[in-house]
Amino acid sequence: MFDKTGTITRGQPEVTNIISTQDFNEEEVLFYAVGVEAVSEHPLGQAIVERVRSKGKTLPEVNDFLSLTGRGVKGVIEGKTVLVGSRKLMQEYEVATGRLEEEIKQLEDDAKTVMLVALDNTLAGIVAVADTLKEDSTKAIRELEKMGLKTAMITGDNQRTAEAIARQTGIDRVLADVLPEGKVEAVRKLQEEYLVVAMVGDGINDAPALKQANVGIAIGTGTELLKLPT
Length: 230
Prior knowledge:
Strand content: 25-35%
Shape: elongated
Number of strands: 11
Strand order of the largest sheet: 2-7-6-5-4-3
Helix content: 25-40%
CATH architecture of the largest domain: 3-Layer(aba) Sandwich
Largest sheet: 6 strands, antiparallel
Number of helices: 10
CATH class of the largest domain: Alpha Beta
Distance between the termini: 21 Å
């Protein structure tokens, strides 16, 4: 099983689309999104920050920042409550997203991750981010299949985006919408089904799942955690 970000993909996402609702404009969507994401350490958020910094613009000040693991971020900018994140986050705060549903589905079909932006519980727009596949990902999946091994990808992305990436690589199975704390349970379920599971992951969030797997292969920052006693 492969974690998606930094393993199947490069882990260097870039902003590809900014779309606003009729009540806002693209500059406003980007302004408020970057304000809260500048405090976040998530790679997708940093893609928005890099987009703004590359244009030489100043980042707005954010207050009452809150990171909502696996769902998004929240903060207050210029007196407005800003939410940036997934559908789950919008549902949690009862933000209606129907006005941009067609655009969201199209972007997800293109294997892009969509971050919804809301101001004072009103949808302002969306920022789409794409992370390109590593050059050897598809080849590696094919080699594993030649060996008779089943492949799976686990990600916090929604099902539509995850399936688009799986189609590009030839991965057999997709586990989407999985929060970081749900990865261990996902490994356990695969072990019940297949007995032996190897997991390849990147990042601190993957460390517990890598330990749970029969074989844990760490790429990047998660490596040191695997050296800790269990």
